[in-house]
Amino acid sequence: RHPRAHLQGVRGAVSRLPSPVSRLALAAPRAPRLLLADDQPDVLEALRLLLKGEGYQVETARSPMEVLEAVRSREFDAVLADLNYTRDTTSGREGLDLLQQLVGLDATLPIVVMTAWASIDTAVEAMRRGAHDYVEKPWDNARLVAIVRNAVELGRALRRAQRLESENSALRAA
Q: What pLDDT does residue 14 have?
């Protein structure tokens, strides 16, 4: 066999390999995707800059309706949501209702709630309804990043466990 024929075969095989960039994309897990929800654009921008700088993919929503639409149509690793969306509202009711709806949509999605109108009663109610954590505004950047990192890890672990349980059930049924 001619040496050039061998090289052509090697080149053909190499050209069928994924590019270094696509191999890296296959090997590296995707950046965690967060949904940030607040009615105040300045708060959303501050959160977006902080968390994007930490390596997160960030999407934003300005109302409970936008949050629900986003969660129904895309996968997120965690949600960071305000409790109040209507101007001059401080009860947290909107956010607590949203929290309950999000848990109903995906029980494995960690939700961190935030509010400038913190109270022990609201914090207890948020946790009772399924919040992963509770953050007061203004927040401490290092604490917020640690809370988000923990929430993302928890969500991924819950989804992995759910996937393994489904696979085990399918294997037992087969």
A: 42
Nearest Cα neighbor of 131 from 94, 86, 85, 78 is 78
Q: Which amino acid is at 104?
A: G
Q: Which long-range contacts (CB under 8 A, 24 or more apart) does 146-153 make?
A: 147/112, 148/34, 148/51, 148/54, 148/56, 148/78, 148/80, 148/112, 149/54, 151/77, 151/78, 151/110, 151/111, 151/112, 152/32, 152/34, 152/56, 152/77, 152/78, 152/110
Structure-model confidence comparison of residues 115 and 60, the more confident one = 60
What was the pLDDT predicted at 119?
Answer: 81
CA distances from 72 to 66, 68, 69, 76, 138 (A): 10, 6, 5, 10, 29
Judged on CB neighbours under 10 Å (0-12, 13-18, 19+), 84 is buried
Q: What is the pLDDT of residues 31-44, one digit of tens each?
A: 999 999 999 999 99
The span from the CA of 154 to the CA of 24, in Å, is 25
The CA distances from residue 50 to 47, 129, 141, in Å, are 5, 27, 8
